[in-house]
Design brief:
alpha+beta, Phosphorylase Kinase, domain 1, Transferase(Phosphotransferase), domain 1, 6-stranded mixed beta sheet, 3-stranded antiparallel beta sheet, 19 strands, 33% helix, 19% strand, globular, binds adenosine-5'-triphosphate, nucleotide-binding
């Protein structure tokens, strides 16, 4: 199917707010995007992902944009492009990076977003901005709550519900006030009404993938919750989801954090870059919620709505129950059995091509 037929129902939306008509996105010409990005100049390049490269640009009105340009055209890539546009055009929430527009001319496929001046959470935790200690504790809490609210919109308010399938620190972008915006819907799936999961070809990032999804391709909202749990642990500790401990083995963030939680040594989990300046109760909350979200058994995980409330300090009784969960009181829990310890992939990125053995069934349960 050509993307044009796929997008036949996706028109720039007119939203009436207080009598004002707001056009939320539009179609860009290739010429306009060439002009905005200085012909996709290398100096404008912000980074590269599975879909292609992302460039900074400026439009004639002075507004700054980020343009994602498809690497190599293929029918499959065209379809993924259409899926991302289709999903982006549906979502509008303060914590989701929305669509500014797209361009499809010849074999060129480009997606246009607002530029996020503070780039990704990854760059502040582990990348070029990490030495500047830009993330104090209040900022980390606001990022945790805001991104959970963005995901809650996808899981509970969008129609049909949407699973993101690639929640990770590179996909949480930060605006000028460090407000988080969940981005990158290239792997997202629309959940058929009433379905508990969809079985699909595995795509995602090692270290963030729920075990039942990595092994069986069973994707559901709770897979996003798992990934978000890993993200919470990363945000609290500044550690990467998977760490190389010697030339042959790796350790997941869960394997590292759980023994410290058994010993209730929360200060040893806290990111040293915060120099001890965090709210202990909140740190504990982020760690317990992160670990229970990243439980190997999907039924033990929380819903993202519960996550939002718990992070805000609500659902006190639920939190007491979480703290005394067997995961945190027994010795080494069987829960450390995630894909991280068996897989070592330097990019951490799983594309469909590397997973040809997993059959795409696309069947609603
Ligand atoms: N709107 C934006 N504003 C600022 N930077 C952005 C924007 N969108 C993407 N980027 C940056 O561009 C880079 C590439 O992003 P992209 O979403 O293509 O890939 P990724 O998330 O790094 O990897 P993957 O494709 O594996 O998910 C990232 O470093 C991201 O921080």
């Amino acid at each position: 199917m050509d993307f044009r037929s796929f997008l036949c129902c996706t028109k720039p939306s007119d939203r009436k707010e207080k009598g004002k008509k707001e056009i939320t996105w539009r179609i860009f010409s290739l010429k306009e995007l060439h002009a905005a990005t200085n012909n996709f100049n290398y100096d404008n390049k912000l980074g590269e992902g599975g879909f292609g490269s992302v460039y900074w640009g400026q439009l004639w009105d002075g507004s700054q944009i980020a343009v994602k340009r498809l690497k190599v055209w293929s029918n499959k890539a065209d379809m993924e492009f259409a899926v991302e546009i289709e999903i982006l055009a549906r979502v509008r929430h303060k914590n989701l990076l929305s669509l500014r527009g797209y361009c499809a001319e010849g074999q060129e496929r480009l997606i246009v977003y607002d530029y996020m001046p503070n780039l990704s959470l990854l760059s502040h935790l582990h990348g070029q901005s990490s030495s500047e200690s830009t993330l104090d504790w209040p900022r980390r809490m606001a990022i945790a709550i805001g991104s959970a609210e963005g995901i809650a919109y996808l899981h509970h308010h969008a129609t049909p519900h949407i699973i993101h399938r690639n929640i990770k620190a590179n996909n949480v972008l930060l605006d000028e006030d460090f407000k988080p915006l969940v981005a990158d819907f290239s792997f997202a799936k629309l959940m058929p009404d009433g379905a508990t999961h969809v079985t699909t070809r595995v795509k995602g990032t090692l270290g963030y993938m729920a075990p039942e999804y990595a092994a069986l391709g069973k994707a559901s909202e709770s897979c996003d919750v798992y990934s978000f749990g890993i993200l919470l642990l990363e945000l609290a500790s500044g550690k990467k989801p998977i760490e190389k401990i010697n030339s042959t083995s790796t350790r997941s963030i869960k394997e590292w954090a759980l023994p410290l939680v058994y010993a209730r040594k929360f200060s040893e989990i806290a990111d040293p870059k915060m120099n001890g300046t965090y709210v202990e109760e909140e740190l504990k909350r982020v760690i317990f919620v992160g670990l229970i979200c990243a439980h190997d058994q999907p039924e033990k995980r929380l819903t993202i709505l519960e996550v939002v409330e718990l992070l805000k300090g609500e659902l006190k009784e639920k939190f007491v129950a979480i703290e005394s969960d067997e995961m945190f009181v027994t010795g080494r829990s069987a829960d450390c059995n995630d894909e991280a310890s068996v897989a070592d992939n330097s990019s951490g990125f799983i594309s469909e091509d590397k997973q040809e053995q997993v059959q795409e069934i696309e069947k609603a349960a």
